[in-house]
TrEMBL record:
<dbReference type="Pfam" id="PF13041">
    <property type="entry name" value="PPR_2"/>
</dbReference>
<dbReference type="InterPro" id="IPR011990">
    <property type="entry name" value="TPR-like_helical_dom_sf"/>
</dbReference>
<feature type="domain" description="At1g68980-like TPR repeats">
    <location>
        <begin position="81"/>
        <end position="205"/>
    </location>
</feature>
<dbReference type="InterPro" id="IPR002885">
    <property type="entry name" value="PPR_rpt"/>
</dbReference>
<dbReference type="Pfam" id="PF25245">
    <property type="entry name" value="TPR_At1g68980"/>
</dbReference>
<keyword id="KW-0677">Repeat</keyword>
<feature type="repeat" description="PPR">
    <location>
        <begin position="625"/>
        <end position="659"/>
    </location>
</feature>
<feature type="repeat" description="PPR">
    <location>
        <begin position="518"/>
        <end position="552"/>
    </location>
</feature>
<comment type="similarity">
    <text>Belongs to the PPR family. P subfamily.</text>
</comment>
<dbReference type="Pfam" id="PF13812">
    <property type="entry name" value="PPR_3"/>
</dbReference>
<dbReference type="Pfam" id="PF01535">
    <property type="entry name" value="PPR"/>
</dbReference>
<dbReference type="InterPro" id="IPR057440">
    <property type="entry name" value="At1g68980-like_TPR"/>
</dbReference>
<protein>
    <recommendedName>
        <fullName>At1g68980-like TPR repeats domain-containing protein</fullName>
    </recommendedName>
</protein>
Length: 780
């Protein structure tokens, strides 16, 4: 049999390779042998031999193939049946041979384009079931390509929801949110019970939590102010997508955990506008948000609902009052904070007395005391603490099968999954409660709140109020000994810090109130005065000690004698020595206090005193006036009274308060709400940059994102690029999808044609800025 040899030009070869019905099966450097009735096709492939070495595709040629041969090498082109290829993809997915399925799919894409609709969706769900990042990314890439080629009709709603859930479970929040956004754009509205599960898994990472809030804002916008008529049957799928209380709870908890609380407040503002009602969990989350943002008046309004609510647990009450107490401290309202603590102590004392009385009655009656005590105590306190059980169930990465998913038409299982993840997020929030604890269902203050209150009183120089508060606290919660009271610890802390006058004033307040104390406090202060060489204060303190009937120890006499020697008062020193001998004062000194101070100096744990010293040395001084002015500015901006907001900002500066990120965020969002105030926002941007270079003010993601949105909306792309650079340097997440959509909405035709021949430098800069931003969002 004679073989046909045909020489082929490079242009003919290129046309052959680019034809949609041919596939290159193999390239070799020698001529292909002739097998049976099949013929090989050989041609010159110098520039293509490396790239096309492993590709497979189809040929619509008849059963015989032609051989093209040259000195350079050979190419084998083989024909395959597209229908058979579709079957092979499905079989590979069913057998979990994902690598084979993808290779066959690539062959089909090269020659015929996308496989059949059913095969595409089976491929997406198969890759999603694997929960393997490699295959999830390929599945998402196929979805992206389908939308780019306007072939989204190949994609069904349920497989896309399933894929977005799998992506979110694997911490791929950006593609997960993009799929949900595409579903909304194409009006394939996913029910809220389905997409809230994706939202829940997204909210476990910082970028995902931010995107979750953005998603609710975007979807909620469709329902604002009664835009959708629920009476129309055609609106039923859209109504089913409306965010519910669970979705809001999830997004708000994520915002709290990752610090985007101003975004969370935007979600709270949206809730009444779309008719979402708050449940018990949402009330507590609202309290956390108001506390973080310094909205004390909102917290006070919320307190009425909390006190009237009958289905709140001890843990929830503790979280709310922790938020309220923290907010009082932020605003420097020490009276309200100290009164809250005293009220808690009083109720705890009453509860202890009532419990003791009830126990005695039951013992007298011969009842089982243990059962009653357990009933009064309520749930075990350990149950109130997050034990991580929810987290443990989430660490095992798994997903229900697509068959099971598709049978659950109402997405009940996904709704339950979302609620389970919500519980884990709320458990993490409980660990942030530091100022209040519960015992037998009764709120009680922790040492942390004593430390913060004492520090605030000392900074405000309200020593009399501090002493009065601590004495009242001691009456409600009596210490074991006079030397172990909170007030004594505070006095000793002041001595350690060198604040001797404050310590003496507090000691006087104790004496005037008739509160007795041991000799250790007087001894410690006396030694400190001697060391500081302050003889007048030494004499005054000795007189006070004698009035209080305090007997000083030998170490105090040693310090006094040494002080007199330094002052060259020999007679005084001898007199003190004689007095010590006659009084038969034992040696030993105040070793207990010395050990306490040494423990503090060595970063050891020494109870309240050590915590107070650490808080005073490391804690930042709060500017309570700043929170007041921020609230005023926020109120004006929310009401769109920007002229009043500008006056308030000017007054705030004149009083010496430096604006912070929250101040600028309120101003920028206020300007953005009324529109057209881009020059004012640009001026704020310049002021903020200069402040950041001269003060410790920090840029955060929410603030920079608000600037970026305003600059893109107004077409100020040079400034927008500055913000982008700053966010990228700070490793902050940027929602590119949002800005790509915003650009296409308002600037789609901007700078599309050729650049004019004559441009000013400013025009050239604007054009370059816009094109640079367009490239950054992926539109060029």
């Amino acid at each position: 049999m004679r073989r046909s040899i045909i020489a082929a030009s490079p242009s003919f070869l290129y046309a052959l390779l680019s034809h949609r019905h041919f596939s290159v099966a193999r390239i070799c450097r020698c001529e292909c042998p002739f097998y049976g009735s099949h013929r090989s096709v050989c041609c010159v492939a110098d520039s293509f031999s490396n790239k096309l070495a492993t590709l497979n595709a189809y040929s619509s040629l008849p059963n015989r193939l032609m051989l093209f041969s040259t000195m350079a090498g050979t190419i084998l082109v083989q024909a395959r049946d597209p229908a058979k290829l579709n079957m092979e993809i499905v079989d590979a997915i069913d057998e979990r041979r994902y690598s084979d399925a993808w290779k066959i799919c690539e062959q089909h894409m090269l020659m015929e384009g996308f496989p059949r609709k059913s095969v595409v969706n089976r491929l997406l769900t198969g890759f999603a079931e694997s929960l393997d990042v490699q295959w999830l990314e390929k599945a998402y890439g196929m979805v992206e390509q389908a939308f780019q080629e306007s072939k989204q009709n190949l994609l069904e709603k349920e497989p896309l929801i399933y894929l977005s859930l799998a992506l979110a479970k694997c911490n791929l929040s950006v593609p997960a949110s993009t799929i949900l956004r595409k579903l909304v754009e194409t009006e394939q509205f996913p029910p809220v019970t389905a997409w809230s599960a994706t939202l829940a898994y997204m909210s476990q990472t910082a970028p995902g939590a931010y995107l979750a809030a953005e998603l609710i804002l975007e979807i909620g916008y469709l329902f604002q102010d009664g835009r959708v008529d629920p009476r129309k049957k055609s609106n039923a799928p859209l109504i089913a997508m409306k965010p519910n209380t669970t979705a809001f709870n999830i997004a708000l908890a994520g915002c709290l955990l990752f610090g985007t609380t101003r975004k969370a407040e935007q979600l709270l503002d949206m809730m009444p506008r779309i008719g979402v009602k708050a449940d018990a969990n949402l009330l507590i989350v609202m309290a956390h948000i108001y506390e973080r943002n310094g909205r004390r008046e909102e917290l006070r309004k919320l307190q009425r609902h909390i006190d009237e609510s009958c289905n709140l647990t001890d843990v929830q009450f503790r979280q709310f009052y922790n938020c309220l107490l923290t907010c009082h401290l932020k605003f420097g309202d020490l009276d309200s904070a100290s009164n809250m603590v005293l009220e808690m102590l009083r109720k705890a004392k009453e509860a202890r007395n009532s419990l003791a009385t009830a126990t005695l009655v039951l013992e007298a009656a011969g009842n089982n005391n243990r059962a009653f005590t357990a009933h009064i105590s309520g749930p075990n306190p350990s149950q109130n603490k997050p034990d991580g059980s929810h987290n443990n169930s989430l660490t095992e990465l798994q997903i229900i099968s697509y068959d099971e998913f598709s049978r659950d038409r109402n997405f009940v299982k996904l709704g339950n999954e979302a609620k389970e993840v919500l519980l884990s997020l709320q458990a993490k929030l409980q660990t942030q409660v530091e100022l209040i604890t519960t015992e037998h269902g009764i709120l009680q203050p922790t040492e942390k709140i004593y430390v913060k209150l004492v520090k605030a009183f000392l900074e405000a120089e309200k020593l009399q109020d501090l002493a009065r508060f601590l004495i009242k606290a001691e009456k409600e919660d009596s210490p074991v000994s006079n030397d172990d009271s909170a007030l004594v610890h505070v006095i000793k802390s002041c001595i350690s810090l060198g604040w001797l006058d404050q310590a003496h004033d507090l000691l006087d307040e104790m004496r005037f109130a008739g509160v007795r104390t041991g000799s250790s406090v007087y001894a410690s202060l006396l030694k400190a005065y001697c060391k500081a060489n302050r003889p007048r204060e030494v004499t005054s303190l000795l007189r006070d000690a004698q009035k209080a009937g305090i007997q000083l120890d030998s170490s105090c006499y040693d310090s006094l004698i040494q002080s007199r020697v330094i002052q060259q008062d020999t007679q005084g020193a001898l007199g003190l020595f004689k007095e010590m001998k006659e009084a038969k004062i034992p040696k030993g000194g105040n070793a207990e206090f010395e050990r306490l101070v040494e423990g503090c100096a060595g970063n050891g744990e020494a109870g309240l005193m050590a915590k107070l010293l650490r808080e005073i040395k490391e804690g930042q001084k709060l500017d309570s006036g700043l929170h007041d002015w921020n609230n005023v500015i926020h109120f004006f901006c929310k009401k769109r009274l920007m002229a009043d907001a500008e006056k308030a900002l000017a007054k705030m500066r004149s009083l010496g308060h430096i604006p912070n990120a929250q101040t600028f965020h309120s101003m920028v969002t206020g300007y953005a709400a009324i529109g057209g105030k881009y020059i004012e926002v640009t001026e704020l941007w310049g002021e903020m940059k200069s402040l950041a270079s001269s003060t410790p003010m920090k840029f955060d993601q929410e603030l920079l994102d608000s600037y970026l949105y305003t600059f893109v909306r107004g077409g100020f792309f040079v400034r927008a690029n500055e913000v982008v650079d700053m966010m990228e340097k700070g490793n902050m997440f940027i929602d590119k999808y949002k800005y790509r959509t915003l650009y296409l909405k308002y600037h789609k035709t901007l700078y599309k044609g050729k650049a004019p021949k004559y441009q000013t430098e400013a025009q050239l800069k604007k054009r370059e800025g816009a094109l640079s931003f367009k490239k950054w969002v992926g539109l060029s």
